[in-house]
Amino acid sequence: xxxxxxxxxVLVWWAMSQAVxxxxxxxxxxxxxxxxxxxxxxxxxxxxxxxxxxxxxxxYKDWNLKEAYTGALLRDSDGYRWMYPSKTSDPCxxxxxxxxxxxxxxxxxxxxxxxxxxxxxxxxLGDLNGPKLNAFQ
Length: 137
Known about the structure:
Layout: H1 2-19, E1 32-36, E2 38-44, H2 50-55, H3 65-68, E3 71-76, E4 81-85, E5 101-107, E6 123-126
Antiparallel strand pairs: 1-5, 2-3, 3-4, 5-6
């Protein structure tokens, strides 16, 4: 009987441990200055970009994700994608290909998948003297 009770307790513990999830995110300090070396840059519009439309999800209007996903989408020398929100007509001018650029980093924990502010990996770049970006999801 004690063996059955112990077995049941182990089963309950295992089931509970599987139900509890913790975010496994390594997020840098908001606004930290980083250097990015662009390999490519594309001006995108949050209303029409196919990846944004396919993955952004139901909070598009509530979180003003059109603003977050309108600007420059760049890929760095390591292949990582970064979003630089901008209202300018040529946001890629900020990112000369192959030249290191300093910007402020704002990251989102993307442990729940590719949606909301995580369409392109949850890494946003802001200007050194610009306003803080809200990358929280």
